[in-house]
Predict the 3D structure of the following.
Amino acid sequence: MSILSKVTFGAAGLTALGLSAYVAAFIPTPLSTGIAPLSTVISPESVTRNIVCSGDVVGYIGDSATISGISPTTQIVSGGGTATNLTADSATNGSAITNSGVSLDVSAIEFGSLDTDAVAGYLATECGDPLNDQWLIGGSTTTGRDTIITISNGSDVEARIDLEIWGSAGKVDAPGSHGIVVPAQSQRSYSVAGFAPDEGSPVIHLVSNGAAVWATLQTTVVRGLVPGGLDRIGSVATPTVSVSFPVLRVPTEKSIGKLLADPSYADIVAALRLLVPGETDATITITLDPYAEGESQVVSASIPAGSTLDLPISELSAGDWAVTIESDQPIVAGARVGFHDPASGITDLAWASASPDQTGTVSVTVPGDAALGLANGGSSEVTVSIVNNGGLAEDVIIPARGKLIIPVGQGVVTLTSNAPVSNAVFVQTRNGIATLRGLTAPIDASSVVVTHG
Amino acid sequence: MIRDSLAVVVVSRRHPERLSATLASLAADKIPGTITVVNLTETSVALTGQTEIIGPPTLSLSHAVDLALADSSSETIWILRDDTSVRPGAFAALASILDTSPSVGIVGPKQMDAKSPVTIREMGESMTRSGFALQIAERELDQAQFDRTTDVLAVGEAGMLVRRSVWTLLKGFDPALPALGGALDFCFRARSAGWLVEVVPAAVIDTAVTSHEAFMGDVTETQAEREEARARAHRVLVYGPAAVRPLLTLGLTFGSLVRGVGRFLRKRVNPFAEWRGSVAGVLGLNAIAQSHRAYRAISTNPVGGGRLFVSAADLRHRRATQRDEEIARREAADFTPRLEFGAPAIWFTGFAAALGLVLGGRFLGATALSGGALIPMPATVSESWDAIGATWSDVAGGIHAGPDGFAALMGIVSSITWWNPNLIVVILFTFAIPLSFIAGFIGAGSVTTNSRVAIVVGAGWALIPTLHGAISEGRITAVLAHIALPLFARAITGSTALSLGWASILAAFAWVSVPALAPVIVVAVVLRALTGVPSALLALTLPLAFEWPRLSESLANPVAYFADRGLPFPTVAPHGVVSLTLWPTLPSFPGLDTEIATVIAFVVVAVCLVLTVIAVVVADNPRVGALLLPAAIALLTWAGLGPLTLATADGEPVGLFPGPLFDVVWFVLLSGVAITVSSIRFAAGFLAPISVALIAAVSLVPLTAVATGLSRVAPADIRTLPAYVQAESTAHPGGATLILTPTAEGIRAELQRDAGVTLVDWTAAAATRQSLAENEGAMADLAANLIVESDFDVAAAVSEAGIKFVVLEALPTAPEVSAIASHAGLTEVGVTDRGVLWRVNEMVETTPVNRSPDLTYRVILGLVGLVALIAAMPTSLPRRRPVVDDLMPAAGEVDDEHS
């Protein structure tokens, strides 16, 4: 091979390589395949959605050691009807509600107020979809405080329940908390004090093997001989790194200020209860964002893993606030606010469960005049279409990391969002306060995206 | 006295120009008797007073003699041909034997080669007991070494002196053997009739051609072999008892067929010539019967003396000598220097194996590997074989499509570890480093014969990120291609049938595993065909035999053909400028940002490119220059296909894994680096290890991925479905399992039949489907309805789909669990290693799917594969003679290995 042809060979090869490198780097491919990921959107036929309500206000009648209903609650159901009344120990209490139309439209709440020697206050809670794994944050089992866990199984199979209870000193070794059987279409109530006595800040993790169940906590407060506080707390499905309480109403200094001098009224101060269920301590950032004019407050804190922490937020001015917590570890959290009416002397408190971020259609039933808070934790704006009591749809836009509060009246409010948004309703009556959430189905049953493996 | 009544017959057929010399030699020796020339030449011949008889050119020697003797009454016949010349005293010596020994019927002279008067051409004939004719002395320098031999089985026709009575009794030569073996048969019959046959060493004649050539003119080796086989078959059947003739016939044809196959395997020209001759011989039934009757009629004294036959030991000795001659001849012709896998290479392979064991030790002892793009192979080799030519795949709820080349390849490859088909995958992944070193080293032989250069290329090849990216993502196709590519480069540069066979096998490995390499392979083969080896195009036959159904199916959407084979698995390959770092992922080095890592990777590629340019231009290695073209094609292929979605998996788009394409470029760069670095005479000693260390440092993250647990691949169970399902499917095959996996958007549904989907089930047709397969719609419907509480009739839907089990890949507390449990017709079995398992209550009638393989595909693949395999089978031992391998095929590349 001559020198010339060798050089030609090399030069040709190098030129070809250079050209192809240029093409690979800068020229878009002219080819196409028409292959795209395959997924199918299926609308399941005649979907049934069962949500479960806890029923009556429960407690001890007289000196009885068993828990039973002491006062009925009012139930408002929209988009469905009662399918089954659940059997409690001695009578029926609680019910399973099945949708009559579109599964996402069924929603129900129960509310009630009581003013007896033993219990005084107001409660209102959503009825929810049964879960196999849920967290309940709130209540106390110290002197004068009682907290009752009510587990409702609306399904046709029995549930075996394991409870894990955390307190301020760590996980509580609770005898009898495992293997609790809740038969099909039944309800069982237990005093949390039985598992964790004298615990100021319990958090309960409920795992059901078998049927999914709906669990609520009912907490009551008696200070000395004066009852003052009733609430029912709905459950949270899973620990998350972002927790939202879209609306909490901080009472005025004028209404509760005088009480605060009494240490037994310490639990009407607004507070957050936090638990890191994992192994690693969490660093959290709490953002307190007022709906009224004013700067939002940001607090950072380090939360030790494995024990509950009650964090009072006493410096807030009166009014409605949106609270969000961002964490570097999955956490569960609840929020508490107090209420006192100096005129009637009624004292109450409300525990708010974290509102999950939900997309699509959410129905929330409102017991009376209330404030609906919506929070967008995402980084882009969300459009929410709101229909109140079958009225005209009203579209609102919630900016990124923004919030919105709107007054709503009794009845059903249907929210349809195009991105994750969390909601909560704050109800304030003469008899006390309560918060509740609109919860969508754990699985969006209206259209299921099936990807093909 | 013989002299008194002698007829000398000279048959002139093809060498009339020599006839005058023959006649002159007769005259010079004063041969008595009448000399008759039988002229079969159709031309006039110059005679000096001899009788001339003219006959047709096709007349056999025997008939020519008969023609000459028609009017003669002489007692003795001396048969000569026009190419024989008689040395003085030859006739006297022959005649004296007949004169003195009445029992001797035929005598023959020592035949010398006319062109080389000291070489014996023939001196008596014999045969083995099985009928193979042999010369007692053949092409040997005459040192009187055979002169003690007189009593022989037969003598050749040229110079044969025969008594007239014998000739008449035996009616001359057998007319069935006109060309070859006539004399042997004639002498054999003479002996059977009680006469002796002797060769007379003192009688010497010169012959120019063999008796076969004298009859036929120039004959090829094949023709000679065929004629010899025909004569042998005739002999064996004539002399043997008639009763066992069918048996003998069978033995002859079968024996020659077996030998033919042997020659075929050794890649001889016309391997089946002997078989064709034997068949022609055994089919001459009339001739055999006639000859047999004639033989029986005269046979009074059957030839029994073993001494006359060639013994088995002698035969072995002769064959060994023949083989030695052949090897010597071939070695003398083989002077091309080539890269030898010598001691340093073996040492480095050892180092590579040790490194592989350290880095891939996690895989040792695993029964199967799984993760990333890798799922286990079937549990038994017969299931693997079922994939060869399979037209049904269980993937995507069942899909009918043409056979898939990769599935067939894996089916074949898994036979290597037939007791556990997964083991070959484990071996491949554990020993990928040493295998790549060997492949890189041998592949470097395509550009160099310097073993230092080859070691640098091999080490680089075993360490580069394209290989380790592929290993940690479980891309078995890319690993196979990585090992096959350099070997293919080496094979395609050869020109023998052996290298062509290997080129075709290796091309098939690379192409079938990574179809995107097809353009590169085609260009390399065409380049080779244009540069002097047109038969290189045959290297494409095996890949095409693997892929023709897939190729014809891809005509509708040709680009989709190039999708990676096996389980589709999304890539994280960079595109555009960053892809020129030639990393299959974003470059990463420990402790550095991606941006800095990318810059470093660019610098590495740039340095390699500069060194390659030096190798091409300055070090003047045109082969590296030629390799640049396939590298350019590889980059172009990447430019065309890289950004596309070629397949889908789990609702995600799957693009091309660029590793194998970048491999092609890397091979050129590594070769260039190695050649340039090794040419720097004073510094090669330390620059070579430094460059290898640099490559290792640059690819540290992917290199250690398996050891540090970053790899997606991990030892796994062969079983992919819960044991309960496995047990049930063994007892009652045909049932399907619906596997549901909750996703962020909804649910992933997959239907697996029997014991589950394996690597060979993933055909390209399934991975590149553009729309839902036949059963997927119904499956999606079922899946969506199962995970919500509804009045959906689950029992009817599952029995229609043949589903016996439902697995939810989620914790038992997932919301889907209670939804699935709410449907009638399912019973929860429990929590398994794969998730929550339900059994369908009703007995599900399963209609077996048509799994019959494509037989045409199997036959074509089998035949082409067999031919390639035979071509690739080495037929000679390694060279015994040292060759100066340091003679560069390309000048300018300096070897200081031995300096």
Observations:
- Chain A touches chain B through 69 residues (CB under 8 Å).
